[in-house]
Amino acid sequence: MSALSTRRFLLEVLENDRGSAESILGCARDCLTTRDADRQSRLLLKSRADMNRVDTKQRTPLYFAACMGQLRIARVMLRDRVLVNSRDRRGWTPLHAAIAHGQTDMVRSLIDWGADITITCTCGSTCAAFSALYNQAVAMELLLDKRADFNYAEQELYTPLHHAAEFGLLDGVGRLLEIRADVEKRTKEGCTALFLAAQEGRLKAVHLLVMARADINAQKISSSPRVRLESPELEGATPLFMAASTNHLDVVKYLIAAGADKDLRGPSTGADTPLCTAALQGHVQVLSTLLHNHAAIESSLGPETNVLLAAIDAPTKASLLTLLQAKVSPNLNAATAASPFRMAIRSKNLEAMKWLVGAGVQQETADPRGWTPLHTAAHAGSVEAIRALLHMCVNIERTTNRGATPLLIAVMAGRKEPVAILLQAKANVNHEKSEGWTPLLIAAASGRCKIAHFCLQARADVNCANSKGYAALHLAAAGGYPQVVMMLLQSRADKDAVGPAGTALTLAAARGFLKVIQVLLQAGVSVDLPQEDGKTALYCAAARNQVHAVQLLLDAAADHEKPADGGFTPLRIAASRCYVETCRLMQRNVPKKPLKGNR
């Protein structure tokens, strides 16, 4: 654009008052291509244009000049007392912008013209923090000459040293350490500069901070009890822990050589040792380095965790193999529910199980509940683990503290295939746990038809009752499981056995299980057989207003006039409770042809 056309365009924009911050700056930049740049630049001011006018993001022409390093235009604006400390939406001043864009000459000019170096942007960062964050060594020197506070912490309590260390800005770290910036100052999350540098793998920054005598074992602890950490599981973590967790091998080696505590554990239950986190993350080289430097295995033990457990949970199995090759005992926490062998069984990790067995793991050690690995495998439904343990000839009848065998545990967990395998291995199908519960009773009470079938095939006692007197047929009828009831009847269960709450028919009638009632009636149960207090099935159904059950029993010729021990008949008990429909059914008393019930 020629000088003449530039001048005309400037005049047109300014006379019509359409100039935004960008257009004013654009015109001024065009002036620089002409021979009379200074003269044309002054035209902006002589025409009375508003040099403090802002765009939609609150940016002024001076802001753009600072970003682009247009020093001559900025000087013209500054001589006319343009607002040097104007702020955009982010709170950035032209000085912030000049530092962020590396315009050192502009920084010098703005400072000379009185730019306020203490102004913070909306995130709380000062110009000093910007010089560190953007690795602007010259800007840092200029700010130091003006006595800028390089220990000032922003809203998240980050200082310039934190920024420089986290991003590995070595010039900034070195200069800040020269002016004795506080190396132990913590962020809101409780992180020191060394912690951040180790976390990000900034080896040279770590070296500078260690040489400046930063606490190599400083743990991540919140700066205030009221501050809630974003990652509470990392509370108490050290720089070495973070380097191990993020797989920065060179930083790990350096910190160990510098004397970092390899076994320091934080107060949080989630903060394990560096050895544990390396095993959990599958960082094999870091793990080998820690083991080679004699990191203590025992110090990584917790009530519910240990280094082998972490290795089993790792995304790859190389961690576990590395630990076992380093002669780590496979029996860590063997007598607890958190043993590595049990964890491998629960996760159905057959490869880990084989390695642990090959390393000499104890296969029959019980935890405080009395559970052996076979109990754990039965509960987890780990078929391969069960077969492997049975192949090792473990005790198949070992009981827990409550008297449960692995077979009972598998039945209670509803594990069909493990039940079949244990029964094929000749597990005692009639073993009773506490209160007399057998596998068949548990299967019948929970309606597990397939498991009940397995038990009956293994010749389970179909009429065995628990300590309260309930047989399998009672439990299946009370639960409303017609298929299990039919299976038990086909296996010659006593259909008229009387339990504490009556017969199977009484239990089903009281609960209104119509399909169970039909199955029992077709099997020829005694319709009017009373329980101990004289109540019949019809009485129990009428007392609970089970209308459809009453109809079925009346169709089977149940006696609606037979009284219980208190003298109440089914009709009378229904009437006393205002069960109108039930009373009407019994008053009609027109029984149809009996199904197969006996009087």
Write the SSE topology.
Blueprint (H helix, E strand, L loop, with lengths): L2 H13 L5 H11 L5 H10 L14 H8 L2 H9 L14 H7 L3 H9 L14 H7 L3 H9 L14 H7 L3 H9 L14 H7 L3 H9 L27 H7 L3 H9 L16 H8 L2 H9 L14 H6 L5 H8 L14 H7 L3 H9 L14 H8 L2 H9 L14 H7 L3 H9 L14 H7 L3 H9 L14 H8 L2 H9 L13 H8 L2 H9 L14 H7 L3 H9 L14 H7 L3 H9 L11
**Roughly what percent helix?**
40-55%
How large is the share of residues in beta strands? Answer: under 5%
- Considering the protein shown, what is the CATH homologous superfamily of the largest domain? Ankyrin repeat-containing domain
The third-level CATH topology of the largest domain is: Serine Threonine Protein Phosphatase 5, Tetratricopeptide repeat
Total number of distinct structural domains: 5
Number of helices: 35
Largest sheet: none
Please mark out the parts with pLDDT under 50 across 5 or more consecutive residues, or reply none: 1-19, 28-37, 225-229
Report the structural category.
Answer: mainly alpha
Mean pLDDT score = 84
CA-based gyration radius: 42 Å
Strand tally, please? 0
The global form is elongated
| Distance separating the two termini | 116 Å
Please identify, by name, the CATH architecture of the largest domain.
Alpha Horseshoe
CATH class of the largest domain: Mainly Alpha
